[in-house]
């Protein structure tokens, strides 16, 4: 048995350092830290050195006069070119101030309480705040994750992060949310090389965008109508960062999901508006089905090549005819190209269906329902490549209501009633990645989530509000050409008379498609665009 007397206590010998050595060590350490800080912040260091020099040389006027001059230059810059003023002066300055005085102050507390602090080797390890970039509406925080964390962990707590920093909305991106700018001019090659480094893939960081001023609170006015629609970028909505969100409508179908009165009409009308230049020139044909008896779309009738709003028989005929167009194009284009290029002679056909459930689920006539389902299935599975696209809106995105939900490559979610519906519309995991479409406040009509091209992260946008008078103006200004309905021999057209349309003078032949689209089609040999 071991007794206390058997234990040998070994104490290390204590070295007493002289006080002067301790002070010297501390001084060296602080100087090293200060020097390192100066190296990492050259602009702040140079400004401070300049300020001290001016003060020593000229006393107070040495500081006040340059500051007044700087303020005047800044004001003039803001007045003449606000966007570059934000990008080069106000944004970085505001970002620096907010980083030091807002985010750094509560960083440890926020990370810990949001569950993002980890423990390693008995120590707390926190994600590191690398940078804050501000603009008119957003603060974008670049954060280095703790080793072993993934962006999904941040996305799951995006709402907690927003409230932790005193904001209502936050979005987490696994890649830089902004695109590299287009560079032109003699120094373009150099700037492009710099951009390649700036926009390189950085899997160790995430980007947290906090909405400082909600740019989506105000109604978005309709966008100007492009004379020749660029199908790769149709302007439809405003983003949180005040930029325009554009729809890529090339070789894709679009599904718009939203509860009643959440603004599905504004999505469809924003799209019709963006296409209307092409409608008048003959580059686009709009075939519209409005099962609500024409309540939504009858105002724009002159723009539509085909319109069915009363009889379900006529709606089924319209869809059958779209399948005929599809078959005819397949026969003609097979072996020539893989993606159809819209032209005046061979236009893009966009079948717009408001309230799709009326055709797929609530229709009582079983035979008609089956006929419609088979046409829709064919259009959705084979129409994108041959330029027969479907754009559909619906309130209830369950599979029983819309069995072909997965055949829509592009999805838009407006306000929804249940959390589960968000993933049904936008795809699995979208809600976890921050698309809180079920938590839309009442004012948020026309506000929704979209998935950007090439990134899995949802973006919040507000669609432009096209009023009745805008629609009347559009219908008067951009009617479909007189021969618009005769794309193929007509099958069972609705008995309502065709509207009288003035024949429009056709423009002389020339490149109808914008360069970006032609390059895209030329470049990939006509491969699928999305
Ligand atoms: N983008 C928008 N900005 C502002 N207000 C909008 C917007 N879109 C719609 N609204 C308003 O919301 C209301 C409902 O819009 P809308 O009829 O488009 O919704 P909906 O989802 O199509 O409805 P329903 O389910 O009846 O088809 C409209 O009265 C309109 O004033």
UniProtKB/TrEMBL annotation:
The keyword Transmembrane applies. InterPro entries: FtsK/SpoIIIE/SftA (IPR050206), FtsK_dom (IPR002543), P-loop_NTPase (IPR027417). Keywords: ATP-binding, Membrane, Nucleotide-binding, Transmembrane, Transmembrane helix. The chain crosses the membrane at residues 20-39, 60-79, 85-101, 376-394. Residues 233-423 form the FtsK domain. The keyword Magnesium does not apply. PROSITE patterns: FTSK. It comes from Micromonospora cathayae. Residues 493-530 are annotated as: Disordered. ATP binds at residues 258-265. This is FtsK/SpoIIIE domain-containing protein.
